[in-house]
Amino acid sequence: MKDYHEIGSELVAGMIKEFGITEEEFFYEFSRPGYEEELVRLNILEKLKSENSKRKDENEQIYHNRMLDELKDLINEMK
After folding, report:
1. Could you report the per-residue pLDDT of 13-71, keeping only the tens digit for each?
2. How many whole angstroms separate alpha carbon 28 and alpha carbon 78?
3. Which helix (H) or strand (E) is 8 found in, with range?
4. Distance in angstroms (rounded) separating the CA atoms of residues 77 and 17
5. Using an 8 Å Cβ cutoff, are 67 and 48 in contact?
């Protein structure tokens, strides 16, 4: 059975070939905007967590999901 890294590498290689672009174009032009957006979301999520403590009745997963909902609400407000 192939692990995640092998499958991921094959997937990236297939996309590069299919799009007819170089590896550099893929990582620096094609996938970078999505990566950067995800970093911004992660930073906002961490800020929300620093401003909103976990409730006594929440476990980590429920707390994380609540913060993700807060993030979604914030993004919708900004649109």
Report:
1. 888 899 998 888 888 888 777 778 888 889 999 999 999 999 999 999 999 999 999 99
2. 27
3. helix 4-19
4. 39
5. yes
pTM over 0.85: no
Give me 50's structure tokens. Answer: 């620093």
Give the torsion sign (CA, 41, 63, 51, 79). Answer: positive
DSSP 14-77: HHHHHHT--HHHIIIIISHHHHHHHHHHHHHHHHHHHHSPPPTT--HHHHHHHHHHHHHHHHHH
> What are the angstrom distances between the C-alpha of 74 and each of 28, 48, 65, 70?
28, 10, 14, 6
